[in-house]
């Protein structure tokens, strides 16, 4: 049952949709043109389509269109230049160096620009070994242009015909990631689960949640079709996404001192009840994500009201159960969010449903400007992208020379293609891609060789080609090793249709891949390497500043200041971004050689403490927003709360100062107590819980200061 659902989930996914679109766009031109005896022309058109498909990543339609237009422009220029000079080895080496450097610098402009660079360099590499006359290179480039325009028209037509599917796919995936996060939170209430291992998994999952949230933001908030005059469907998607972000914060707000909770309540059995309902909530979110992804109307499966009543009765039988009741309130809030989200699908018209801060939605999307000054500013060895661009340029020239000295066949450009695809700015990703490429090529090569050797029927071969082609493009963003596994037999079968079906081609591809892989791996270690450790301080500082600003919102609420929802959510988003950046950098560092890893234990502890701190702050904000129901009345100030939060802010400020860099982007906040505020001396039970949470915050801030100090000193 689960396997069937996973298969259906993949078929409904954006990945499979992309695979079908790209395969159709690439395969149709040669199929049609081969009927009239112009197969080579069809392959050239197909090459233009493949290149243009590379920057066609999920995102706003305008960004996809602009990315493909720039790709076509650079593709045409590069094709003409390479075709005109490829009979002059000295000029060709100069071109390889200059273009490899120039286009590799596109990494500073983000993933889409980087994809444009990859596509254009592929065209340069493929044209290197071909010999053109002046007339034939213009003709060939014209076919590439036709292929690029054809694929762009296809992609934009699909986007217009199904304007909401990309958003549905991304939103469904985002909800599924949050469901995974909630399942990990449930493990904290399982006495048999290891809290330390769960923390590590939780932080890794938070990175995935953040990345998917950023994708959905760009698709929803930068798509004029969805935001300018939203239809009922567009409004539904926006409402669900905004509530799912609040729900994610609420999952963070179910954070307490789990070791204490286990020791205090582990024997009562109530923690297993918490675990059960949290797992059920995660399953409900998985169902929601699946239904949205499949374009089906979601229906609530779980009866949470009876589960909440049963949980409440179990809590009532436990002594000193106030903390458990507060956790129950948080869980009830999550259930209410889930119920609210499902209710949107019952509305025939959603115009009456208010979207908070609707005019400010664009502020939540990070914009990447194509400023030439940014390119110039990165011409420095301090820039990781500059080092990477030089590395790619140098090793590409070496790869070309090696391919000419050791001619292994007619496809020596495979060495350069392997270098281009594998060589990434960071060592860890290059290392990972190397392993995946070699494994995928070896297994895929064997599969391709068996098909070419034993399957002689062209119809059956074409069926295999179609399957491997769709698999290649479906998994290219989902699982690289699987994508390569499909890619190798797809290429071998394709070559068999144009008369290159011998097994020597399999051997040639494997050897070329191994040589290119070795050169890319060696270059990432020896040629202007860039290690993660020197950058960790910047990531740590950014994360501390984000947590500091997040805690300031609590301080403002405790002093009676009303919460600006838009500003609060922007601060919260910045916290998620900085947390994901720090955790990603740490993951990359521990994949590097042992000699390049420093202060691993301190950095790991820093990440866990920051996650705990942000979770405690989320819990505080949730409690304060529930308690501040009498808006408009005079603020009530608890001196103990103010004292604790000022101390926590001071400790965070001290840690930030110790990580001081050349950039000054931090300003210490001033906490003012209104003159008309009423001070209280006797604490209520709710006030005591806030005091307890603030003590956790204060202790964690102190631990962060110690961890930061140890990281700097060692």
Question: What integer is the average pLDDT?
Answer: 83
Poorly predicted segments: 630-634
Number of domains: 4
Strand order within the widest beta sheet: 1-2
How much strand? under 5%
The largest sheet is: 2 strands, parallel
Order of helices and strands: HHHHHHHHHHHHHHHHHHHHHHHHHEHEH
Number of strands: 2
Q: How many helices?
A: 27
Helix content: over 70%
Q: What separation lies between the terminal Cα atoms? A: 52 Å
Structural class: mainly alpha
Radius of gyration computed on alpha carbons: 28 Å
Structural shape: globular
Task: Tell me what the structure shows.
This protein starts with a helix and ends with a helix. A two-stranded parallel ribbon has the order 1-2. About 1% of the residues have low confidence. The protein has four domains: 161 residues, no CATH class; 192 residues; 153 residues, no CATH class; 180 residues, Methane Monooxygenase Hydroxylase, Chain G, domain 1 (Up-down Bundle), CATH 1.20.58. Helix 8 runs parallel beside helix 11. With 714 residues, the chain is mostly helical. The radius of gyration is 28 Å and the shape is globular. The protein has 27 helices and two strands. Helix content is 74%, strand content 1%.
């Amino acid at each position: 049952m689960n396997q069937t659902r996973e298969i259906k989930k993949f078929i409904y996914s954006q990945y499979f949709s992309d695979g079908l679109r790209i395969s159709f766009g690439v395969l149709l031109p040669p199929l049609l043109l081969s009927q009239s005896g112009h197969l080579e022309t069809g392959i050239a058109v197909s090459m233009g389509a493949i290149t243009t498909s590379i920057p066609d990543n999920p995102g706003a339609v305008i960004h996809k269109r602009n990315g493909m237009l720039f790709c076509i422009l650079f593709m045409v220029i590069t094709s003409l230049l390479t075709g005109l000079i490829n009979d002059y080895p000295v000029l060709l080496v100069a071109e390889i160096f200059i273009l490899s450097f120039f286009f590799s610098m596109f990494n500073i402009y983000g993933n889409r620009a980087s994809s444009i660079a990859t596509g254009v360099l592929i065209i340069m590499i493929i044209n290197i070994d071909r010999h053109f006359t002046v007339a034939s290179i213009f003709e060939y480039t014209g076919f590439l242009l036709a292929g690029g325009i054809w694929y762009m028209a296809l992609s934009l037509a699909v986007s217009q015909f199904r304007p909401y599917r990309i958003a549905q796919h991304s939103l469904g995936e985002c909800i599924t990631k949050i469901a995974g996060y909630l399942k990990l939170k449930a493990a904290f209430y399982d006495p048999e689960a290891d809290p330390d291992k769960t923390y590590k998994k939780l932080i890794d999952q938070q990175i995935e949640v953040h990345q998917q949230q950023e994708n959905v933001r760009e698709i929803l908030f930068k798509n004029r079709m969805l935001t300018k005059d939203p239809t009922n469907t567009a409004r539904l998607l926006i409402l669900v996404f905004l509530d799912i972000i609040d729900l994610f914060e609420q999952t963070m707000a179910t954070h307490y001192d789990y070791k204490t909770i286990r020791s205090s309540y582990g024997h009562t059995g109530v923690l297993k009840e918490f675990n059960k309902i949290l797992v059920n909530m995660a399953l409900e979110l998985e169902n929601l994500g699946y239904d949205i992804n499949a374009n089906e109307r979601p229906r609530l499966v779980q009866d949470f009201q009876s589960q909440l009543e049963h949980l409440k009765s179990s809590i009532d039988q436990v002594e000193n159960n106030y903390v458990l009741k507060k956790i129950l309130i948080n869980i009830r809030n999550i259930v209410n969010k889930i119920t609210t989200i499902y209710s949107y699908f019952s509305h025939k018209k959603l115009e009456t449903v208010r979207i908070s801060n609707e005019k400010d939605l664009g502020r939540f999307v990070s914009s990447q400007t194509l400023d030439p000054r940014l390119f110039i500013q990165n011409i420095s060895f301090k820039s990781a992208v500059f080092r990477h661009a030089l590395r790619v340029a140098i090793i590409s020239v070496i790869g070309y020379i090696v391919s000419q000295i050791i001619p292994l066949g007619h496809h020596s450009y495979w060495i350069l293609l392997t270098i281009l695809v594998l060589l990434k700015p960071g060592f860890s990703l290059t290392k990972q891609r190397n392993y995946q490429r070699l494994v995928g090529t070896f297994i895929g090569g064997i599969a391709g060789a068996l098909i070419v050797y034993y399957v002689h029927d062209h119809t059956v071969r074409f069926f295999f080609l179609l399957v491997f082609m769709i698999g290649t493009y479906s998994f290219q963003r989902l699982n690289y090793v699987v994508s390569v596994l499909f890619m190798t037999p797809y290429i071998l079968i394709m070559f068999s249709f144009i008369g290159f079906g011998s097994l020597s081609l399999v051997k040639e591809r494997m050897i070329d891949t191994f040589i290119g892989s070795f050169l890319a791996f060696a270059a990432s270690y020896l040629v202007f390497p860039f290690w993660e450790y020197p950058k960790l301080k910047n990531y740590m500082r950014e994360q501390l500043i984000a947590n500091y600003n997040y805690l300031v919102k609590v301080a403002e609420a405790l002093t009676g200041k009303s919460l600006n929802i838009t500003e609060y959510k922007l601060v919260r988003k910045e916290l998620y971004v900085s947390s994901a950046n720090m955790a990603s950098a740490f993951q990359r560092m521990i994949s590097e050689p042992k000699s390049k890893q420093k202060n691993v234990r301190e950095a790991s502890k820093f990440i866990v403490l920051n996650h705990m701190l942000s979770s405690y702050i989320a819990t505080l904000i949730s409690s304060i927003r529930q308690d501040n129901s009498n808006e408009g009345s005079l603020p009530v100030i608890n001196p103990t709360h103010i004292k604790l939060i000022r101390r926590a802010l001071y400790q965070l400020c001290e840690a930030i100062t110790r990580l001081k860099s050349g950039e000054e982007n931090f300003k210490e906040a001033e906490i003012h107590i209104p003159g008309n505020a009423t001070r209280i001396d006797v604490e209520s039970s709710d006030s005591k819980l806030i005091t307890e949470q603030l003590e956790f915050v204060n202790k964690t801030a102190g631990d962060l200061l110690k961890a930061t100090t140890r990281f700097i000193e060692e």
